[in-house]
Amino acid sequence: MLVTTKQLFQECYGKYAIPAVNVFFMEEIHGLFSAAQKANAPFIVQTTPFARDYAHPEMLLAMIEAASSIYPDVTYAVHMDHGYEEHIFDAIRKGGYTSVMIDASHDRFDENVKRTRKVVEKAHEKNISVEAELGVLAGVEDNLTIDAAHSFYTNPQEVEDFVKATDCDSLAIAVGTSHGAYKFSGGQGLQFHILEEIQQRLPGFPLVLHGGSNVVPEIVERINAAGGKIKTDAKGVQEDEIRKAIPLGICKINIATDTRLLWTMVNREFFRDKPDEFAPTTPGKIFMEEYERFIIKKFELFGCTGKA
Ligand code: G3H
Ligand code: 13P
Ligand code: NA
Ligand code: ZN
Fold first, then answer.
1. Ligand nearest to the CA of 19
2. What digits encode the pLDDT tens for the residues 90-128?
3. Is the CB of 235 within 6 Å of ligand 1?
4. Residue 236, annotated ligand binder?
5. Is 155 exposed, middle or buried (0-12, 13-18, 19+ CB in 10 A)?
6. Which CATH number is 203's domain given?
7. Atom number of ligand 2 nearest to Cα 258
8. Is residue 196 part of a domain?
9. 253 C-alpha vs ligand 2 centroid, how far in Å?
């Protein structure tokens, strides 16, 4: 069943989190829907503007729709990740998404409010949920690179005014994560004191964690053993941090880096071990199966297994 993120968050708040997985191609969509059907877990399938440029928005949405009839028992939302007005208004006109993110987090507070408010007005007319963002994460985000000096944590003193003024349905916050494989290279970890203060000021309001990948050390080691050169200070959000963040209001956890690392591992190992092979479908099949297993483990960690 296709639902909004607002509906998913009403069920999960404080108890479990929903994985929001970025997809770019067919094998990921199969793996994600198949995992959800087996685990009976709710999920969010999301696309960035980069993914839309790569595959074409119509291709992505058609594949997602096809997956929903191949795997009919799943409960899911279709979300636009890191959207700007041009993508969002196009999506509102053409349909397919039940949720959008307006990423105006790089603007000043007033401008962020103004842009978010306008998106909320148009989206709510079509029963589409809106995720907004306050604070700036470091790292690579689609094709925008933010260095550490230009990133900043969400200011808890601004969150109530922001949510009231915009009427957004969920809020992405910057509490120490970054996009990509090098989140906690300095060892800083999630800033729980900031998260706690945000929850106190917005009790019951759904919060979103971007940069939610774990960056599994075994996967990084296997990539490097198969010829990759991922730097060894790669580090992600730890499992105990995820468990601790859920009762503090984190309802949606975004994942892109982890599945990209998984793809890299499968393909590097495959072509290292079978240098005479050239059929994309053989590693593609292995990837779909590995992906499904990987997502089922995320459902377990986030507590959403059996909750669809
Ligand atoms: O922030 C959004 C995604 O993590 C970035 O997607 O893989 O195209 O950079 P990407
Ligand atoms: P990761 O880079 O940790 O996978 O984060 C993805 C993300 O936040 C997409 O919006
Ligand atoms: Na942002
Ligand atoms: Zn993000």
1. 2
2. 999 999 999 999 999 999 999 999 999 999 999 999 999
3. no
4. no
5. middle
6. 3.20.20.70
7. 4
8. yes
9. 8
